[in-house]
Structure formats: C-alpha cells, structure tokens
C-alpha cells in the first residue's frame, strides 16, 4: 500500500466517527443562520439597483429594470456550474462510495465546500450584478420546483410512514426504489435552481427563504451519512416550509383576520404534518392524540374569528400535494413499465436475430 493510499484510508477512518457528521450538521445550521444575518445587514446597499415598476401579486419585483448580457450570462453560468458540480458529487457517491457512514465521507466535505463557496459567490454576485434567474423564468418555476421536492418526499417515504395516518398507498417496491435512487438529483435541482432564482435581498420573505435553502443545501451535502436519514432532521426540512410559507403570506396582507391568507399556508402544511409526517416519528398513541387536540384547538381559535366558511382553505395545499404524489407515482410506474416493455421486446428479438 502506498503512503498516499494509507493516508487516505487513515483520514477516512477518522471521519467515520459520528462526531464529524454532528459537527457538519450543527456547524452548517450555524453558518446558515449567520449568513442569513449577514445578508440582512448588507441588504441596504441593493437599493442602488433600479427595478421595474411592480405589476401586482404575480409579478416578481426583484429583477433589474435594464438587464445586460453580462448579468444574465453570469447568473446562468453560476447556476450551471453549481448544479453540475453537485450532480457530479452525487453521482460519484452513488457509484464509488455507495455505503452509509455514521460520520462523513470525503465527498461530503467536498459537497459542503462547494455549496459554501457558491453561497458566498451568490451574495457577492448580487452586490455586483444583482440579477438572478428570475429575469428569464417564471416565479412559478421556483415555487413548482420546491413543490415537486415535497411531493417526491411523500412518495419516497410512503412505505416508512404511510401516506394517510400511517397507512401507505399501494405503490410497488420498484416505484419507491426509483424515487429513492434518483431523489438526490431532483432535490439538488429544486434547491440549487431556487437558490439561484432569487437575489440575496433582505426582505423578510427572502431572508426566511434563504435560510430554508441553506438548510436544504446542507442536507443535500450529507448524502450517504446517518444524519442525512435522521427522521427528526428530515422532518425539520419538511416543516420549515410551514414557517416559510406562513410568514411570507403573513407579511403580504396584515390587519383584518378575515382577509389575511397565512392560515391557508400554516394550517395547510399543518394538515400535512397531522395526516402524514408525524407518523414516521414513532410517537405513542397518547402523543398523537395530544397533537390532534392541540391542532383542533388552534383551528377553532383562528376560524372562530376568521369565519368557518373559510375552513375549506386548510385542505387546498394537502389536496394538491396528495394528488401530485399519486400522479408522480403513476408517471414513474408508467416509465418503469415502458422500460420493461422495451427490454422484453429486445430480449424477444435478440434470439431470432442470433439464429438468422
């Protein structure tokens, strides 16, 4: 064994200790919080960039009034390099590393470093050129990418925690295995694309969103580690969208409780927790019933003032996500079926070709 190989093996053995994944996790959370604070502290400088006139609720305001080819090229180029780098590390981990560890693999260190570098560059790029992918794409593409990630999680976790009160939908093993195998690429696209969609602005919505994106990038860097599949940490990723959606909606319309829209997001994602997410935590029956009761009391308190006729809004987000999860499962099943059909035809005709 060469000295270089021996050194690499020694480093790998040291990093397999669980303390290294804990350091990476809590260090990453601290970095996420501190850099979000840094974005807030430096955000006032961005008022110098001229933005177009606000055109309403479906208009994304934070773009340049007069974009240049340089701002566009650097935004798309930065996104592309970041995306390809993370996809490459995921592929390397799946094909070369393969095994889970309590600590860290060296490829995790590389992923953490790549994401940290691009987080800093994203901030610097905003202050130099401002524009991001929002200049050329719809705001619904950013929202849709996150929705796809949340729906993919529902499907991927179907066997472990069920879809409805611990009961799984009857999706075959091949569908769930496909979702698990390729989820890293899909989640990476959702997070990196959304990350590069927004400039590093310091509005409440941007700050909450960036903190959430930083946590997702952190989670995406910890593949093939035990902390990556820790059920409480995974739940944190899902529940953060409840906080993000609720707070962003709360800042849009304030005042009369009958007019605000934050309850639709807060209680909608709350229903997702009650119906699906909490059933993968190993909670005791009395703990579940306590959560049910507290959730019911919260609904009674808010909708007693908001108006019971608006109660239907709390099922809108869950309905969309569950329908999309079923459609996604069926599409994956269709793709698997088509692949198997092609392979079957190929095998059927190969013997005939060999005999001729």
Lay out the secondary structure.
Elements: H1 3-15, H2 18-42, H3 69-97, H4 106-129, H5 139-156, H6 158-161, H7 173-197, H8 204-221, H9 231-252, H10 262-275, H11 285-306, H12 316-355
Helix pairs in contact: 2-8, 3-4, 3-7, 4-8, 5-7, 5-12, 7-8, 7-12, 8-9, 9-10, 10-11
Order of helices and strands: HHHHHHHHHHHH
* Major sheet details: none
Percent range for helical residues? over 70%
Number of helices: 12
**General form:** globular
Cα radius of gyration in angstroms: 23 Å
Poorly predicted regions: 3-7
N-C termini distance: 52 Å
**Percentage beta strand:** under 5%
Q: Please, what is the average pLDDT?
A: 90
- Quickly give the structural class: mainly alpha
Work out the number of β strands: 0
Description:
With 356 residues, this protein is mostly helical. Helices cover 71% and strands 0% of the residues. It has 12 helices and no strands. The protein has helices at residues 3-15, 18-42, 69-97, 106-129, 139-156, 158-161, 173-197, 204-221, 231-252, 262-275, 285-306, 316-355. The longest helix has 40 residues, at 316-355. The chain is globular and about 65 Å long. The termini are far apart. The model is unreliable at 3-7 (pLDDT under 50).
């Amino acid at each position: 064994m060469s000295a270089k190989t021996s050194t690499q093996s020694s480093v790998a053995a040291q990093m397999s200790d669980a303390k290294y994944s804990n350091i990476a996790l809590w260090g990453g959370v601290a970095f996420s919080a501190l850099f979000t604070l840094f974005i807030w502290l430096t955000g006032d400088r961005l008022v110098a960039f001229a933005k177009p006139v606000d055109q309403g609720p479906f208009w994304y305001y934070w773009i340049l009034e007069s974009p240049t080819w340089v701002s566009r090229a650097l935004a798309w180029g930065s996104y592309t390099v970041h995306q390809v780098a993370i996809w490459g590390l995921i592929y390397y981990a799946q094909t070369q590393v393969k095994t889970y560890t309590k600590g860290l693999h060296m490829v995790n260190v590389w992923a953490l470093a790549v994401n940290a570098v691009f987080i800093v560059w994203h901030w610097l790029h905003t202050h130099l050129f401002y524009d991001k992918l929002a200049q050329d794409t719809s705001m619904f593409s950013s929202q849709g990418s996150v929705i796809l990630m949340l729906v993919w999680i529902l499907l991927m976790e179907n066997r472990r925690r069920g879809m409805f009160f611990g009961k799984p939908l009857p999706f075959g093993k091949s569908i769930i295995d496909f979702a698990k195998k390729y989820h890293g690429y899909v989640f990476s696209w959702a997070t990196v694309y959304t990350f590069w969609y927004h400039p590093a602005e310091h509005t409440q919505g941007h700050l909450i969103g960036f903190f959430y994106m930083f946590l997702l990038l952190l989670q995406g860097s910890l593949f093939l580690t035990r902390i990556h599949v820790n059920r409480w940490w995974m739940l944190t990723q899902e529940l953060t969208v409840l906080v993000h959606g609720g707070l962003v909606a709360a800042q849009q319309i304030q005042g009369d409780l009958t007019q605000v829209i934050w309850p639709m997001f807060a209680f909608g994602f709350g229903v997702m927790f009650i119906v699906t997410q909490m059933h993968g935590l190993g909670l005791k029956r009395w703990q579940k019933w306590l959560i049910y009761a507290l959730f019911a009391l919260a609904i009674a308190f808010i909708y007693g003032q908001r108006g019971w006729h608006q109660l239907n809004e709390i099922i809108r987000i869950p309905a969309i996500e569950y329908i999309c999860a079923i459609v996604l499962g069926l599409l994956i099943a269709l793709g698997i079926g088509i692949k198997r059909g092609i392979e079957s035809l190929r095998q059927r005709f190969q013997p005939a070709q060999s005999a001729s």
